[in-house]
Amino acid sequence: MTSVSAHNTVPFVDLSWQHDPLQADIIAAMAATLSRGDYVLGQAVSDFEVAFAEACGVAYGVGVGCGTDAIALGLRACGIQSGDEVILPVNTFVATLIGILQIGAKPVFVDCDLDTALIDLAAAEQAITDQTKAIIAVHLYGQMVSPIGLQAIAQRHDLIIFEDAAQAHLGEREDIKAGAIGAGAAFSFYPSKNLGALGDGGMVVTQQESVAQKVRSLRNYGSTRKYFHTDPGGTNSRLDTLQAAVLGLKLPHLSEWNRDRNRLAVYYDQALAPLAQQGIIPIKNVSGSGHVYHLYVVRTTADCRLDRATLQLELSHQNIQTGIHYPTPCHLQPAYQSLGYSAGDFPNAEILSQEILSLPMYPGLTTDQIDRVVGTIRSVLAPEAATV
Known about the structure:
Blueprint: H1 16-36, H2 43-56, E1 60-64, H3 67-77, E2 85-89, H4 94-102, E3 106-110, H5 121-126, E4 132-138, H6 147-157, E5 160-164, E6 172-173, E7 176-177, E8 184-188, E9 202-206, H7 209-218, E10 223-225, E11 228-229, H8 241-250, H9 254-272, E12 280-282, E13 296-300, H10 308-317, H11 347-355, E14 356-359, H12 367-381
Parallel strand pairs: 2-3, 2-4, 4-5, 5-8
Antiparallel strand pairs: 1-9, 6-7, 8-9, 10-11, 12-13, 13-14
Helix pairs in contact: 1-8, 2-8, 3-4, 3-7, 9-12
């Protein structure tokens, strides 16, 4: 196929659609912060913590420096200690694993469901030992793990549920919102998230005052009173006031943006349906409109004429940007070979790592752009393309 000009690029993510209309308000919020001079743990942080916790249906929110810190500090605040086993899905971004390792806990990987890419709860229950203290539910691509299933396992085995909700802002399943299932949850406000800052940021949300108070101390050198330190695990991880101000401006728009993601996902589903027989299968949605589609992910299954790498390259030649989330499961990452896992240990995750392809998805994406994405896929999979 002949490539098209660069100005016709279909971007993987385009944030201008949200920033351009809010630019004057963002500049005004930054000017107000400059005027007040409260750059660290200022009023905008407190205001956003309250507003985001309320949006998640929980009592408390504590802003931190990034999503990874939200996992580490949240787990520590929930009582996870060095040597405790923490179960997590192997097909997650490495930050989930890093958060566990940072506090000295032992990660225990389990496989995922091949259709949804979410943690296999049956496998998770089988992995529980006397040393298991928590299970991390990673709400992947914007779709939540079943709260009912999680809570049943936790109750049977007296486990802490902690959510990695970095990709599921205002997601919902079984009438429970992301962040409201267990003892605590971590959110990321990386710029490309459904709710993104202009840099890094994160938050721990919880129903428990004791957890919130602990995170407030841990994020601030183990201190809640200046120069008086009570928590030896303290660090410097604070959501800064400028980022909180921007996030506070964006939050009222988040539900609308998520609805737009759902509308686009439905359009993708319908457009891609005829390609199922050619091996292009979207990751299954079992959550209905509660799925907030941080990412729209398809599989290039064994029935597909092209492998994932070739399809991605063909799309790139047509200036259609894509991503892979994620190309290497955590147990096969070179940095973590000391954990003792090997290729073949988690077959579903390993299959998905070779098949998955993330297509453009963001509010502001047009149906014409989706038609172009799907039309290009259809063209490169057509039998006559095999002879080109």
